[in-house]
Specification:
The chain has helices spanning 3-18, 67-75, 79-91, 93-104, 152-155, 157-160, 164-196, 209-251, 261-268; strands spanning 25-33, 39-47, 50-56, 61-64, 113-121, 126-132, 135-141, 147-149. It is of the alpha+beta class. A hairpin with a 5-residue loop joins strand 1 (25-33) and strand 2 (39-47). The chain is elongated. It binds 2-acetamido-2-deoxy-beta-D-glucopyranose (2 copies). Residues 18-107 form the MHC class I-like antigen recognition-like domain. Belongs to the MHC class I family. Pfam families: MHC_I.
Length: 269
């Protein structure tokens, strides 16, 4: 195999592996029934662990946490409709499910109760967990592509809601698709920010990771280069050595001149 080929492949592998600290979107939504039967809800999305957008339930609109989030909302065609959908869902559908889950789990504790779903997506994978009062009762990861029951009580839901698992599966995987689509849009905005804005561009979240990660890559690159280069030198030295040895033991170098042209060519092949 060609040495340059090895070099390129090695570089590709190492750069590929070191860049799997892929950016993520994390979405958390919660609905809550308080002791006095009033309800509350919230939904927020983080980009790479930093506040990005959140839903304002009193207005039914999104609030952006920074400039990139504002750009994202502007570019998002269905932002308004989506905000209305979630506002409505957190005030009604989510509360209905919470009541059902409390019934299934025989949770008759006084006080407030919450239903929460946490979803983390990267370009490579996605996971969702559902919790009632902090107890995980279902999970879903894109690698299994199934909703997994995590408590005994949720398994009983079959009896009353036979298509629960199937409809949860399509709801969550559809959700993952949407969030991964959003992630790509956010990435595009992040990229143009990096190219465009000159000084001060380093102030955003995640900017700190740049220089450190960059110099690490350069170092890895140099190490690979040195290793491959050394291997190459040794390889050629070995070939040169063998040729010379062959020439001194078999033919004696002086005899080369007397070897007919035709033999010389066939030996080279
Ligand atoms: C998903 O990918 C991220 C990196 O993008 C990784 O940290 C995480 O462990 C992965 N999760 C699963 C369940 O594979
Ligand atoms: C929602 O928006 C209203 C009106 O702009 C504002 O007064 C309120 O503080 C916002 N609520 C949250 C939780 O941000």
């Amino acid at each position: 195999m060609n040495i340059m080929g090895v070099f390129v492949v090695l570089t590709f592998v190492i750069f590929g592996v070191s860049s799997t600290g892929a950016p993520t979107l994390t979405r958390t939504y919660t609905c809550e029934i308080s002791d006095d039967k009033t309800t509350r809800g919230s939904l927020q999305i983080l980009y790479d662990g930093e506040d990005f957008i959140r839903l304002n339930l009193s207005t039914g609109t999104w609030t952006a946490a920074n400039l990139q989030a504002e750009q994202f909302l502007k570019a998002w065609e269905h932002a308004e409709r989506n905000a209305k959908y979630w506002t409505n869902y957190l005030k009604s559908g989510c509360i209905e499910w919470l009541k059902q889950y409390l019934t299934y789990s025989n949770n008759v504790n006084q006080g407030s109760h919450t239903l929460q779903y946490l979803t983390v997506v990267s370009s490579l994978n996605a996971t969702t967990t559902g919790q009632v009062d902090g107890e995980i009762f279902v999970s879903y990861s894109s690698s299994d592509a199934e909703v997994i029951p995590k408590t005994e009580w949720i398994k009983q839901i079959y009896v009353d809601v036979p298509d629960y698992w199937q409809s949860e599966k399509s709801r969550i995987s559809g959700d993952h698709g949407d969030l991964q689509h959003h992630l790509r849009d956010v990435e595009k905005i992040q990229k143009t920010k990096g190219e465009g804005s000159g000084p001060g561009a380093g102030s955003g979240p995640g900017a700190g990771a740049g220089p450190g990660a960059g110099s690490e890559k350069v170092l890895i690159f140099i190490i690979i280069f040195v290793v491959v280069f050394s291997v190459g030198v040794v390889f050629f030295a070995l070939i040169a050595f063998c040729l010379q040895k062959k020439c001194s033991t078999i033919t004696r170098c002086q005899d080369f001149e007397s070897v007919p042209d035709i033999m010389w060519h066939s030996e080279e092949k």
